[in-house]
Amino acid sequence: MREIGPRATSILFPRFRRQMIDWLELMHRRHSVHGLLEVDVTARDAVRRYRAATGEPLSFTAFIVASLARAVAEDRHMHAYRDGWGRLILFDDVDVGVLVEREMEKERVPAGIVVRAADKADVTQIHREIHDARTGSDRTGAL
User: Using CA atoms, how far apart are residues 50 and 123, in angstroms rounded to an integer?
Assistant: First the structure.
């Protein structure tokens, strides 16, 4: 394990996982199969309870981003990057990409933002960041 910066570490890419990459490259040439899935969104009740208790809005997207980031942070390999030298780059923070709808020239267009260190951020902070990106009041995170 080697520190490669203030927020990342590199380790050797496991040999047994190289075979998996080879299989994935072979499977890439095959046809894709798309499927539908059902998701339980009872977490919306928690968002509604938060709004009722505090009077402040909270987006369901912010709740999902915060939950996803915390789950990924529990296993750093889920948020790793494989470089060209056979190493995995493990990041200390979990950054999450989110598409928001922004109005530009009287048209609604999708814009990508990156919520930095979402695993350490409060849900209300994530909500404010997404809201600011939607309204254009903070353009620092826009892609």
Answer: 11
Beta bridge partner(s), residue 90: 9
Contacts of 121 (CB under 8 A, 6+ apart): 66, 69, 115, 129
DSSP β-ladder status, 8-12 and 87-91: antiparallel
Helix, strand, or coil (residue 72)? helix
Q: CA 44, 48, 50, 53: dihedral to nearest 10 degrees? A: -160
pLDDT, one tens digit per residue, over 96-135 is: 999 998 887 788 888 889 999 999 999 999 999 999 998 8
> Under a CB-based contact definition with an 8 Å cutoff, are residues 10 and 83 in contact?
yes
Contact 89, 3 (CB under 8 A): no
- What is the Cα–Cα distance from 135 to 102, expressed in whole angstroms? 7
| Backbone φ, ψ for residue 5 (5° rounding) | 175, 180
Query: What count of other Cβ atoms lies within 10 Å of the Cβ of residue 121?
Result: 22
| pTM of this structure | 0.69
